[in-house]
Amino acid sequence: MENIIEVKNLTKKYGSFTAVNGISFSVEKGEVFGILGPNGAGKTTTLEMIEGLRDITSGTISVDGLNVKKQREEVKKIIGVQLQTTGFFENLTLKELLVMYGTLYNMKVDPMAILEEVELSEKANAQTVTLSGGQKQRFSIALALANDPKVMFLDEPTTGLDPQARRHLWTLIQQIQEKGKTIVLTTHYMEEAEELCQRVAIMDHGEIVQLDTPDNLIDALLQKGFSKKRVEKQANLEDVFIDLTGHDLREE
Amino acid sequence: MEQLRALTIASFKMYFRNKSAVFFSLFIPILIIIIFGVLLGGNGSKLSIGINDQANNQSSQNIISQLKKIDSFTISSGVYDNEIKSLKSGDRDIVLVFPKGFSLTPVDTSSPSKIQAYYDQAKSQTAQVGLLVLDNIVQTINQGIYSNISKQSVPQYVSLEQKGIETNNLSGIDFLVPGIIAMSIMQLGLFSVAFAFTTMKKTGALKRLQATPAKPSNFIIAQSLSRLGISMIQVLILIGIGIALFKLHMYGNIIFFFFFILLGAAVFLAMGFAVAGYSKDENQAAPITNFIQLPMLFLSGVFFPRTLMPDFLKNVTSILPLTYLADALRQIANNGAGISQLWGDFIGLLIWAIICMIIAVKVFKWE
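Predict the joint structure of the above. Result:
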């Protein structure tokens, strides 16, 4: 598999504090790559350095053959970004915002097609303040799709969403992957990583502790003789919740 | 270019759909003009008498002290040119000039001592009342001088020479509206930019913008252009209301007037960007904007003339950007001033614009 992102010895220091400490990894073209880790592990800092939003203290990043340090603007053209805080310009409709973001890339966008893709067609002429949490996240993905990017970065896309909205977003992310885009996402939810990611990097204290497929990571843990204290049942409480309340979104 | 156009249009939409911003920046100034316009309409105020005492002797002082005792007169004095200028700009109703050598002691009865009374022809009704009172005083003085002569044949040793002069026929509203326009320019620049940008900062919208390859300067330019456009619309509305409802005068060149509007808007936009760029959120921006704009509202001659201030305050407040703007707009509208009379205001505003832009660039933070 061809690598679309190469990160080598990436370090970010704020004064004497090291937020990211010499990490190296690569992301394969077309995969969903997860970065997991507790708060403050350095996930967002790593992502924002790749996106060209933060200066790199040392190390190199290349995205689709472009050097992020030297070709920041070029990199920004081929990536789609969803930030952790989904801030939209106020008082504009979804359609207007998509067109405006298109012009930021000097591109003519078809706002209705993108809204269709994220199932927000009926909200085309609404303003973002009227959107529910799940709809906001989907619209923020829509904006990230405005420039038809090769790689998408989603920073905690499902944090704060109810189980239905989360599953809905999973489907959306899988659909985007099927269209050939590479996706890098961060999350706190392990079942999300298991469901979506082909490979995950687990970060802690600015370092990558493990990097592998979810299956391999679990097998490796079991081989060390780990066993859960409580025998896992075939279903968990979330399955019960979904069974009782259905897959249907409640937000619309 | 296409990007700038699209961003400017988007910025217009963002502004006009924000109902509270439109209300505060447009309707408040309109409201002030209407309220003051109605209040100033009633003409029950005192007569303002300006005195130019070239004689400056006991005789003239004697009469002036008598005038000061009259309740319905407000007496002020100054040099000839200033007093006549004040009369022309509507600050005085009558200007009295005591010529050199004015005397109440008859030296030569064939040449009477004349007091010249200049009044505003256009407001002759108001002035006439004052002139009547003054004439009465003069008669009393004459009687005092010739106390031994019978009333019917008192010689007119002291006389009141009435001189109607053409003025710009200005009223209180002519003073007020240019000030209110200057105020609205300040508020549009400071408030709307400071709050819009800190909100964008807080929500992360500005950061998201940086994740695109667009130049951030384009966004700033677009926001500025839209606000300059909004300023123009606002000023047109305010002038329109002044003319339609309160007989506002516009003696100067309207294009020149708008030139100063643009220059003033540039100063206050830059100031707004400096505050917005420095503040983390609106809780920080609000006290800073108020700290800047509240003192200026009261010290820059927006609501009342700065001539009423004590000298030291007058000097300090003369360099405020709002003072330059309000003065220039007023000079153009009231007296038809051209650039030759307004170099001081022009250069003052230009310096402020440069200072504010430099500060804005230095302190601007995107997050």
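Residues 2-39+171-363 of chain B form one domain.
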